[in-house]
Amino acid sequence: MKQITAHTAAELLAAMEKRELSARQITAAYLEQIEKTDRHIGAYLTVTAKEALAAADAADTARRQGRAGSLCGLPVAVKDNICTAGVRTTCASKMLADFTPPYSATAFKKLQAAGAVLLGKTNMDEFAMGSTTENSHFHPTKNPVDPTRVPGGSSGGSAAAVASRQAPLALGSDTGGSIRQPAAYCGVVGLKPTYGAVSRYGLVAFASSLDQIGPLANTVEDVALLYDAICGHDPRDATSAPRDYTPTRTALWQDISGLKIALPREYFGPGLSAPVKQGILAAAHRFEQLGAEIVETTLPSLDSALPAYYVISSAEASSNLARFDGVKYGFRAAGFTSRDEIYLKSRSQGFGAEVKRRILLGSFVLSAGYFDAYYKKAQQVRTLVVQDFARILDTCDMVLSPVAPTTAYKLGEKQGDPMQMYLGDVYTVPVNIAGLPAVSLPCGRDEQGLPVGMQLIGRHFGEAQILRAAHHFAQSYREERA
């Protein structure tokens, strides 16, 4: 019999329904795995062991009484920029190192209502700004596939927790690829939902027009299970979409014959490594074998999307992070003699180098004399990206692309060259700019055994369709490898 932590979330749910396993047994197994493994990985910032066991007992009671929710008894890890009442939420920053929020994010409250068990809060790049989870104030996270390499970022802790079987399910956030890129590097599945499909209430803001909470797991079915639990309209989030959300998990097994999948040639330009290119082309061929049609097309705005993203996201970060000033809450520096000195010292000492770099960039592009040249121009590029995707998705059902130009690189390899790190987001940021859904999943390995990730990009609120295609691909890929 497989170890408890080797099962998928769907399998664990079925075992609890049959009374073959209890929520306490499952939670205890994951806590033991965290105790044994995380000292080498660094996926967690806070582990809520005592509270998790109590929640598991409550889940077992609810199941016995016929009150089981859709996630009843399933352990979940949550990225540390998602507010959890009574549980420390640091954003991996010195600025919020001791912050315990008095309220919970809507997405987390939905997990609780569904009966999920919180294992703890996962590590991340500080304030979600980074692509490696090396920018955490506390410690870097290592890739479970190869601990000498980065797990990706900024949701690297969540991806590493899932990949190392320290959690069957995890929540991350995605502003420019922060769910999909770690999922690709760690060989797991990650979904960036449509902007507005999952409430952002209680998510500590990085770039408000781009941020989106989403799920990570080891299988597409588990991702669908978690997504179905957290999506939906929230009146407390002004950007939340008021619409009906149909379950995605039940649609996974529907046929994908006849689906039209676009393959834009711009995704295969300079910078794409040979193993990733081979993996994506092999994935396209596999889809054809499954009955889908591959359509070659163009996405001319791809090269312009990356600089536009860094202008827009940095501008919004500059505005959002202005609230952290050392006065009301968060880190306050010692030895000040005036209000201005509180601001200066607290922000200088409380933020890390990458966060300060982006605040400075954002303040610059919003300043008088530069607003039109940078921020306004970036918003015009955003319109072009939206139009390009709309043109493609008018005739095709989804877009197939790489997630990142390369597989996971060595820890510390790109810390001294931020531009090289930023270029790694070239394939993911257009999705956030356009507000579209996209799922990342493994499609191969390079010569060193590192996972290659692909993404399927869908129409607005097309999560069910891209997850269905991803599920069929994953089933076929798994059968071949078996």
Question: What is the gist of this entry?
Answer:
Keywords: ATP-binding, Ligase, Nucleotide-binding, Protein biosynthesis. It catalyses: L-glutamyl-tRNA(Gln) + L-glutamine + ATP + H2O = L-glutaminyl-tRNA(Gln) + L-glutamate + ADP + phosphate + H(+). Helix content is 40%, strand content 12%.
Textual characterization of the structure:
The chain is α/β, with parallel strands linked by helices. It has one domain: Amidase signature (AS) enzymes (Alpha-Beta Complex). 40% of the residues lie in helices and 12% in strands. The protein contains 15 helices and eleven strands. It has helices at residues 9-17, 23-41, 49-64, 106-113, 156-163, 180-186, 220-230, 274-289, 302-320, 339-350, 353-365, 371-395, 418-423, 429-434, 463-481, and strands at 44-47, 75-79, 117-122, 169-173, 189-192, 213-217, 260-264, 293-297, 398-402, 438-445, 451-458. It has an eleven-stranded mixed sheet, with helices on both faces. Strand 2 (75-79), helix 4 and strand 3 (117-122) form a beta-alpha-beta unit. Helix 2 (23-41) packs antiparallel against helix 3. The mean pLDDT is 97. Belongs to the amidase family. GatA subfamily.
Under CATH, the topology can be stated as Amidase signature (AS) enzymes
Low-confidence segments = none
Mean pLDDT: 97
Query: What letter string, H or E per element, gives the SSE order?
Result: HHEHEHEHEHEEHEHEHHHHEHHEEH
**Approximately what portion of the residues adopt beta-strand conformation?**
5-15%
CATH superfamily: Amidase signature (AS) domain
Number of distinct helices: 15
Give the total of beta strands.
Answer: 11
Which overall shape is indicated by the principal axes computed on the Cα atoms? globular
Please give the order of strands in the largest beta sheet.
1-3-2-4-6-5-10-11-9-7-8
Radius of gyration: 21 Å
> What number of structural domains do the residues give?
1
- Biggest β-sheet, characterized? 11 strands, mixed
Active site: 79, 154, 178
Family: Belongs to the amidase family. GatA subfamily.
Keywords: ATP-binding, Ligase, Nucleotide-binding, Protein biosynthesis
Subunit structure: Heterotrimer of A, B and C subunits.
